[in-house]
Design goal:
heterodimer, A: alpha/beta, Rossmann fold, six-stranded parallel beta sheet, 5 helices, 6 strands, B: mainly alpha, Arc Repressor Mutant, subunit A, 3 domains, 9 helices, 2 strands, AraC-type DNA-binding protein (chain B)
């Protein structure tokens, strides 16, 4: 039975405090029923994910350039563990080269976001990503071929 | 003048139900224990009217037929996309409206309220999902795929593909090939 959409749990790992704060504000303004948990580097993110007591998120936004453990390293670790198969991974990067996009998808990312440079674009991007992800959770689409670059 | 009265809530509730079901010409059978049975072919609009009328007596219907409707809409859309001969000669909106015997405006509103997308967008997403499968099957050219999915041209398919995935069809194919190769290596 579909009830109104369940609360969406989002994780974000980014070493830039300002980026996290903007993301949080954008999400707030969208008035979606969501919960955001943030991490300042890849190591604390992986510690959180590997702790079996923590509920798995719906979507993880992952910055590529982080200290301790890079986004690519996190991506590879997450995708080599079948427990995380249902977690959608969105790469959140300043690069928009075709090579970076292609590599990220090959490594198992589902979404590739070129960090928007203004707030209204950021809001639209988050909304589009959450909406698209919801289709993959609810309409029997193949997750193996879930790629969304924007 | 002040009057005292007593009443039986069960009888009151039963009469209210009977009155409103009769008024809406719904066939019913009262089963007791807060259960009634109604004919399956009651339209959703009538059902909603009933729900609205009963609300004023604080009688609430617990089942949610909207969930059922949304599933039916999705099923119809997937069917016409995967079976070419079922694709309507009229517009999809008209087809859905006729098949469900509901106004299209109503269909789109219910759908958007519950699915985080619109009917139009859902159709596009499903068409692209099938396009992905056909591309990976490598039996048809992109032009043939666009024909199979009732696109007016291959350019239009490519545009929609790019809109939904952010990728060109050839980039998509390359990524899946590499991804599969990588997971094969991991298994070895």
């Amino acid at each position: 039975m579909i009830n109104k959409i369940d609360r969406i749990h989002i994780l974000i790992a980014d070493d830039d405090d300002e980026d996290i704060q903007l993301f949080n504000e954008a999400l707030d303004e969208l008035k979606m029923d969501s919960k955001l948990t943030s991490f300042k580097d890849g190591k604390v993110l992986m510690d959180y994910l590997e702790n079996l007591e923590n509920k798995l998120p719906n979507i993880l936004f992952l910055d590529l350039n982080m200290p301790c453990k890079t986004g690519h390293e996190c991506l590879r670790e997450i995708r080599s563990n079948s427990r995380f198969i249902d977690v959608s991974i969105a790469i959140y990067s300043t690069s928009s080269s075709d090579k970076d996009i292609e590599d990220s998808f090959v490594q198992g990312a589902n979404i590739y976001i070129k960090k928007p440079n203004d707030f209204s674009k950021l809001k639209k991007v988050i909304k589009d990503v959450v909406n698209m992800d919801w289709q993959y959770q609810s309409s029997g689409l193949s997750k193996e071929t879930f790629f969304y670059s924007l | 003048m002040r009057l005292n009265y007593n009443y039986d809530g069960n009888i009151a509730c039963k009469r209210i139900l009977e009155d409103h079901l009769d008024k809406l010409k719904i066939e019913y059978h009262i089963l007791g224990l807060s259960q009634i049975e109604i004919n399956d072919d009651v339209s959703l609009e009538t059902f909603e009217k009933l729900q609205l009328e009963l609300d004023q007596y604080a009688i609430h219907i617990i089942n949610n037929p909207k969930a059922q409707l949304i599933q039916t809409i999705k099923d119809i859309i997937v069917e016409i996309i995967y079976e070419k001969d079922k694709f309507p000669s009229t517009t999809i909106s008209q087809y859905l409206s006729e098949k469900l015997d509901l106004r299209y405006g109503y269909i789109t509103t219910v759908f958007s309220d519950y699915t985080y997308t619109s009917v139009e967008n859902f159709i596009i997403i499903q068409k692209i999902e099938r396009a992905k499968k056909l591309i990976l099957a490598e039996k048809l050219s992109l032009t043939e795929i666009s024909y199979e999915l009732n696109y007016s041209s291959v350019a239009y398919l490519s545009t929609q593909f790019k809109k939904v995935t952010g990728l060109t069809p050839s980039m998509f194919k390359r990524i899946v090939d590499k991804k599969r190769l990588l997971s094969k290596k991991k298994i070895k």
